[in-house]
Design a protein that fits this description.
Elements (H helix, E strand, L loop, with lengths): L4 H8 L7 E4 L2 E4 L2 E2 H8 L3 E4 L2 H20 L6 E6 L6 H7 L5 E4 L2 H12 L9 E3 L5 H12 L5 E5 L4 H8 L4 E8 L15 E2 H11 L6 E7 L10 H20 L5 E3 L16 H19 L5 E6 L1 H4 L3 E12 L5 E5 L3 H4 L1 H5 L5 E4 L7 E7 L8 E2 L8 E4 L8 E5 L5 H5 L14 E6 L5 E7 L4 H8 L11 E6 L2 E6 L6
Parallel strand pairs: 5-6, 5-13, 6-7, 7-8, 8-9, 9-10, 9-11, 11-12, 12-13, 15-17
Antiparallel strand pairs: 1-2, 2-3, 4-14, 14-15, 14-20, 16-20, 17-18, 17-19, 21-22, 23-24
């Protein structure tokens, strides 16, 4: 009988796959021996396979260039990285090896940009696309970057006040983009995105605030779909509406030369994952060209701002199964030596699926289990794997340690999980005030913790000079090859 775990995989999926292979009963990820990684560093651990970042960037560049050549498209493709997916210095260092641009979402992103420029990592002619709702500090930081000579910093206007706010702090002329407030997908809780300016209002907005404004020039129209780029009626319909706005604007705004199609590509979340990137890109380029030809306007340069696609498939986490609990006649709980809530927050917060595979014991018989984390919280579990709506793993055996890996987790998990004090989009934690009464019954207040500053985030993210002997960055040799292992979670 085919009762081994490897039999289950072979019966269910095509295996091995490009990034996953099996050797001597141990799983390899991009030819890295994961069992050796555990032997060297222990578990739990997180890892970042840096070369995959460059690999995905160049895959996208090749696909777009192929479509541009095929359709004789008279515009360029520009790849930008969405920093909110992962702000870590090692991620940006790898991504910037590939002649890309940067998309930001909050004030402290600009501090990171300035750090990268000082080190010569970010070119002076690179585009910095500043998205998001812009509070005072974000405005100030954008203005500082532009005033210091980075003319390709383009604030993407989110609301009707931002041009005036930027004009007050920027010296001289500056370029802007406008974000379309796209319609949300039908199943969403509300109709229109909270970010950007509505389709029908964009042309009037341009005429009122930009067209005769000698200080501002419109360069980009920004289009973002929350669900990402998908081959469905909703996406193609929204893209069509976006292109109508672009062509209408282009007719009255000669400086408009770029279209940021926003939204991200899906990444692999199962061994059964199937997404035809080349087809989608080919059709996007074709649709843009056809829309522009129909209205007799020049085609735009195409920008994307891929976050998860850039960094997601580089990340992984490895846990050890500590214990098994048989809670009733049907449910076996495998308890891991960490917490899903703290290390993989998307698994419990939004039921995100990741690839989950054992690291070892593939030739052992398997069983159906549930996976539980260490915290005393009922939501600290993972049940989203796609093996027939159940999780199958090699049978628990106290005498034979079992290690399991979660893969393609490199986007968002660290910031959402609060790594080292990080917050999503680098939004600073607010100051915390303690309120009490003194001996006389009078109300007293004191600051418990001040609001986080840019320096706090830069230190956490690795943008300060670190001790070369620090255990968080070590050169280790695995199977005769040297790998730079950047640990993002300290072993317990």
């Amino acid at each position: 009988m085919n009762t081994k775990y490897i039999d289950l995989i072979n019966q269910t999926f095509d295996f091995p796959q490009e990034e996953f292979q099996l050797e001597n009963n141990h799983l390899r990820f991009h030819d890295v021996d994961l069992n050796k990684l555990v032997e060297t560093y222990g578990a739990p651990l997180k890892f970042t396979y840096l070369p995959q970042i460059s690999n995905n960037i160049n895959r996208s560049k090749c696909w777009f260039q192929k479509a541009i050549d095929k359709h004789d498209y008279n515009g360029k493709y520009q790849y930008s990285y969405c920093t909110k997916s992962s702000h870590f210095k090692h991620v940006l260092n790898e991504a910037l090896k590939n002649d890309i641009h940067i998309e930001t979402s909050s004030a402290f992103d600009i501090n990171i940009i300035e750090n990268l420029k000082e080190e010569g990592k970010l070119k002076n002619n690179a585009f910095v696309l500043c998205n998001g709702f812009k509070r005072a500090q974000y405005i100030t930081n954008i203005a500082r970057l532009i005033n210091n000579g980075h003319i390709n910093c383009i604030p993407i206007i989110d609301n009707y006040e931002e041009i005036d706010l930027l004009s007050q702090e920027i010296n001289g002329k500056f370029n802007v983009g406008i974000r379309i407030a796209s319609e949300e997908e039908p199943k969403f809780e509300f109709y229109t995105s909270r970010l950007g300016i509505g389709y029908k209002n964009i042309v009037p907005f341009y005429k009122n605030q930009i067209q005769n404004n000698e200080k501002v020039e419109l360069k980009m129209l920004h289009f973002f779909i929350n669900t990402g780029i998908r081959d469905n009626a909703y996406y193609w319909n929204e893209l069509t509406k976006c292109l109508k706005v672009y062509t209408s604007l282009k007719k009255i705004c000669p400086s408009l030369n770029s279209l940021n199609i926003g939204g991200g590509f899906p990444i692999k979340n199962s061994l059964a994952f199937d997404f035809d990137y080349e087809y989608i890109i080919d059709e996007i380029v074709n649709q843009i060209k056809l829309a522009c030809e129909e209205e007799s306007v020049d085609v735009p340069d195409i920008f994307t701002e891929f976050g998860s696609f850039t960094v997601g498939e580089s990340g992984g986490a490895i846990y050890e199964v500590l214990y098994q609990k048989q809670q009733n006649d049907r449910e076996k709980w495998n308890m891991i030596n960490s917490s899903f809530i703290t290390t993989l927050p998307d698994t419990w917060a939004i039921n995100k699926r990741f690839i989950m595979l054992p690291i070892n014991r593939w030739n052992d018989t398997y069983e159906r289990v549930l996976l539980g984390g260490l915290t005393c919280d009922s939501d600290d579990y993972y049940n989203s794997e796609q093996h027939m709506n159940a999780i199958y793993l090699p049978k628990f055996n106290k005498e034979k340690p079992l290690y399991i890996g979660f893969f393609n987790i490199g986007a968002y998990q660290e910031t959402i999980g609060g790594y080292g004090g990080l917050q999503h989009c680098l939004i600073p934690a607010p100051k915390h005030i303690l309120i009490d009464k003194d001996v006389n019954g009078n109300i007293t207040t004191q600051v418990f913790k001040p609001q986080q500053r840019s320096d706090d985030f830069l230190k956490i993210l690795g943008y300060e000079n670190l001790n070369q002997n620090d255990s968080s960055s070590q050169n280790k040799e695995l199977n005769g090859k040297k790998y730079l292992i950047k640990s993002e979670v300290i072993n317990q």
